[in-house]
Every structure is written in C-alpha cells, then in structure tokens.
Write a structure and sequence with these properties.
Blueprint lengths: L7 E4 L6 E2 L1 H14 L7 H5 L6 H10 L8 H17 L6 E2 L3 H10 L4 E4 L4 H10 L8 E3 L12 H10 L6 E5 L2 H10 L2 E5 L16 E3 L14
Parallel strand pairs: 1-4, 1-6, 4-5, 6-7, 7-8
Antiparallel strand pairs: 2-3
Helix pairs in contact: 1-4, 3-4
This protein binds 2-phosphoglycolic acid and magnesium ion.
GO molecular function: metal ion binding; phosphoglycolate phosphatase activity
Protein name: Phosphoglycolate phosphatase
Cofactor: Mg(2+)
Length: about 230
C-alpha cells in the first residue's frame, strides 16, 4: 500500500483504542444478576458491543444480536446498566498495545485528531480521561452527540467540517463493519484494527482499505503533514 496522506484522522473508541469489554461484561452480568437472570460472560458480550449502550442492553436481554426485548424489561434494565457502567467505566478497561505510541506519532506528524464513538457521551469523556488519552483529541463525537450515530456518516462528516477538511482527505480508524460503512458513506478512507469487536466476524470481510495489528503500524502507512 502506498503512503496515505490524509489531512485528518478520526479514531473509533471501543475495540480500536480501548479494550472496554471487561467493564461492559461486568456491568451486563451485574445487571442480569439484579434482574434475577443468568450472566452471559465475556465471549458473548464481546460480540454485542459497537452499536451503543442501548443496543447492548437490548442484546443482553434477548441473548442475541438482532431483535427487540420486551419494552417493560428494557425500561427496568436500562437504568440499572447505566448506573453500573457509570461506576465501572474504566475499572477494568485498558488501552490496546501500541495505542499511545500510535497517537503520539499521529500528533507529532501534525494530524488533527478526533474520536468518533457510538458510546454515550456520559461514558466517553470519563473513559478517555481515565485511560489518559483525552488530550490527543481536538474533537470527541459520541453516540448521542448528534441525531444519528455510525454507521450513518453524520458524525464523520461533522468532524470533517469541524476541522475544515474535505471527506476525501479524511481517514477513519476503526474495528467494525459499522466503522467501514460510516467511512464509505462519508467518503473517508478506512483502516481497521485486527483485534477489535466486529460481532465475531473477521473485519477483513468488510473490506477496509487496510487491516493492521497495532496503531503503531500507522507510522508505515501515513505520511507526516506537509
Ligand atoms: O458500542 C459502543 O458503545 C461503542 O462502540 P464504538 O466505540 O466501537 O463505536
Ligand atoms: Mg469499535
């Protein structure tokens, strides 16, 4: 692959920068326990992350990716989950290896950086601060910051406008088909991490422009800003 020369880089959060599944699993399982129902464990929860907190709660209630829970079950479960995750946003969550080095490289190479996640803002901001990477980002767009979230292109296009960059000059780094769809719809380039959450499916099937194993590999893929 030839060196990319974007003018802005946006990073997804869960499964790209932070392995948040240990906290999300703890909260899903504690919620299920409070509801008097069996826990799911990390392997199941890992396949359910990526479309925001509401969908995660729905999936835990029905035990699968697609479909809707009973509205009364959801009304009971959602506030329980939110309270649990507010108290366990970063207790067990860690940066993936190479993330800090990758962000350092992008910053020193002169890129405006944004974080675009489907996680609700009340959790995104503390998580970024608590894992020590909030200051890399000139803009953070959460799942509830705008009327539509990924896979809609809206949050990506909002970030491009914010930084005054044409979508065709923008690069998204993600881990899921949701990120690939949003990037394609926005006209961005898209590189995916091999290690993230994509509902148990190999991200190569979504055909991003490249798949990498560590954010540090960006050194060999994107050029410094002129
Ligand atoms: O599903 C979520 O809450 C967040 O997922 P994302 O950071 O990968 O967009
Ligand atoms: Mg993700």
């Amino acid at each position: 692959m030839t060196m990319l020369q974007p003018k802005m880089v946006l990073c997804d959060l869960d499964g790209t920068l932070v392995d948040s599944v240990p906290d999300l699993t703890f909260c899903v399982d504690a919620m299920m326990e409070q509801l008097g129902r069996p826990a799911w464990g990390e392997a199941a929860v890992r396949t359910w992350v990526g479309n925001g907190v509401e969908r995660l709660v729905c999936r835990a209630l029905i035990g699968q990716l697609d479909g809707e829970p009973d509205p009364a079950d959801y009304a009971l479960a959602y506030p329980i989950f939110v309270a649990l995750y507010a108290a366990n946003t970063s207790t067990r969550s860690v940066l993936y290896p190479g993330v800090r080095e990758g962000l350092e490289f992008l910053r020193s190479a002169g890129y405006p950086l944004g974080c675009v996640t489907n996680k609700a803002a009340q959790f995104t901001e503390p998580l970024l601060r608590q894992v020590g990477i909030r200051d890399y980002f000139g803009l953070v767009v959460s799942g509830d910051s705008l009327p539509r979230k990924k896979p809609d292109p809206m949050p990506l296009l909002h970030a491009a406008r914010h930084f005054g960059v044409a979508p065709t000059d923008a690069l998204m780094i993600g881990d899921s088909g949701t990120d690939v769809k949003a990037a394609r719809a926005a006209g961005f380039g898209i590189i995916c991490m091999s290690y993230g959450y994509n509902h148990g499916v190999d991200i190569r099937e979504a055909q991003p422009d490249a798949v990498i194993d560590s954010l540090e590999e960006l050194r060999g893929l994107v050029a410094a800003q002129a």
